[in-house]
Amino acid sequence: MSACPNADQTDTRDGTTMTTSPAHVAPDAGASTLARELTPAVGAAAQIVRRNIARFADEYPDDTTHHNRYPLRPASGPFPEGANRDWTTGFVPGQQWLAWQLTGDEQFRAAAARHALDFERRQRAGEDLDTHDLGFLYTLACVAPWRLTGDQDARAAALAAADHLMGRFLEPAGIIQAWGDLDDPEQRGRTIIDSLMNMPLLSWAFEQTGEQRYADAVRRHTAQLAEHIVRADDSTFHTFHWDPVTGQPLRGTTAQGAGDDSCWARGQAWGIYGFALNFQATGSQELLVAAERCADYFLAHLPADHVAFWDLDFTDGDGQPRDSSAAAIAACGLHELARVEPDGARADAYAGAGVQILRALVAGYTPAAEGVDSDALLLHAVYSLPAGWGIDEGCLWGDYFYLEALARHTLADWKRYW
Ligand code: GLY
Questions:
Q1: Which end of the chain is more exposed for a tag (fewer CB within 10 A), N or C?
Q2: How does pLDDT run across 396-412, given as a tens digit for each residue?
Q3: Cα-based torsion angle of the residue sequence 41, 42, 47, 53 in order, rounded to the nearest 10 degrees
Q4: 177 C-alpha to ligand 1 centroid (Å)
Q5: Distance from C-alpha of 81 to C-alpha of 90, rounded to nearest angstrom
Q6: Burial 232-250 (b: 16+ CB within 10 A, else e)
Q7: Which of 75, 73, 108, 99 lies closest to 87, judged by CA?
């Protein structure tokens, strides 16, 4: 299938001949102005995605850049260099689907469709599936093509991945375990705030199959996180542990934040976006409140340029690196939250803050803004400072959410993949 959804007109966005859709027409004058302002950023980003297709073909780059260049994903265990393993490979086709929608350039669709085949293979082969991050992976690699092109094989693989993810649901706590084997004493009963973004795969599986177990898992897991991973002051723990035998909530800890009691910036951003999505899936008001609380805390702890430091405990003058990926996720999450926020003034504030963050990224955190040659769309993220991974580098998820934020503001009726 090759038609861009609603494709019916030509345009010259990013300098190539392309097919665009009525969705590219912004709904009002204000939005048109913003869309026009962001058009050069879309073009520059699409050009990098295009170059990365030429460079990596059907293989996968590593999670983060090294000196602003993505190396091939390193070999690990049974996996050769460039293989489809771990949690970030879905962001590659995710960027390509977005680039297709933004430009209509067939090259992007073809590349993303080849990745969908590889994710179908990964699922059939049972390769590296024992993680809650099946949601990140299969939402972008397989639900997106189902939504955009009606790809039935991708749909089947995404449903199988959702079924596999359900195997991590732990009674009596009512949570989906994040990492590790289910019998690993270190990891059993532990969940992380990022998991909120894995729930949409289960909500989609419920929509597709009508099987209540998917909706029940989303409702219980997200209710547990809203109650326990969000602290009284509206900051969040990165991870939270439950007693696997009794189901009792135990304690919050961190893996990627500055400390157990600090507020890891990306986690707070996952909270904004993830609670806003899961509120819509469940209709649970507590999740809307959790999204608002995450947003309010995040926005109150931004530095002067609106791009968060890697942990929100740090601010201007602390000499710490930014996490531009947290900013990109928050830009998407604030836009999503603004669409469902019933209080008009709050909705306007969230929408405005999301645009402010996106503008800051475009103006100060891209290769074009800095005049550097990079194959990341967005510079200056941190993967894990405590682990020494990807500090002040580009990363695949930062690139994806930056492009998603651009799509949200330049394609008037863009529909999320999540
Ligand atoms: N989901 C893992 C991370 O945000 O680093």
A1: N
A2: 999 999 999 999 999 98
A3: 130
A4: 15
A5: 17
A6: eebbbbbbbbbebeeeebe
A7: 73
Q: Please, are residues 135 and 197 in contact by the beta-carbon 8 Å criterion?
A: yes
194-247 per-position pLDDT tens digit? 999 999 999 999 999 999 999 999 999 999 999 999 999 999 999 999 999 999
**Please, which pLDDT band fits residue 417 given cuts at 50, 70 and 90?**
very high
Give the H or E element holding residue 348. Answer: helix 344-364
d(C-alpha 47, C-alpha 404), whole Å = 15
Which residue shows structure tokens 């603004």? 338
Secondary structure (3-state) at 73: coil
pLDDT category of residue 24 using cuts at 50, 70 and 90:
very low
Q: How far apart are CA 82 and CA 59, in angstroms?
A: 5
Residue with tokens 């609106």: 306
- Residue 240: strand pairing partners: 191, 252
Pocket test for ligand 1, best of 176, 325, 389, 397 (most atoms within 8 A of CB): 397
Residue 73: is its pLDDT beyond 60? yes
Residue type, 224: Q
Tell how far the Cα of 67 is from the centroid of ligand 1, in angstroms: 20
Residues in the chain: 418
Report which of 410, 412, 400, 406 is spatially closest to residue 144, judged by C-alpha positions: 400
Atom of ligand 1 nearest to the CA of 397: 4
Are 397 and 88 in contact, with CB atoms under 8 Å apart? yes
Strand (E) positions, 4-137?
9-11, 18-20
Residue 74 phi/psi, 5° resolution? -65, 155
Per DSSP, the residues of 202-236 read HHHHHHHH--HHHHHHHHHHHHHHHHHTB-TTS-B
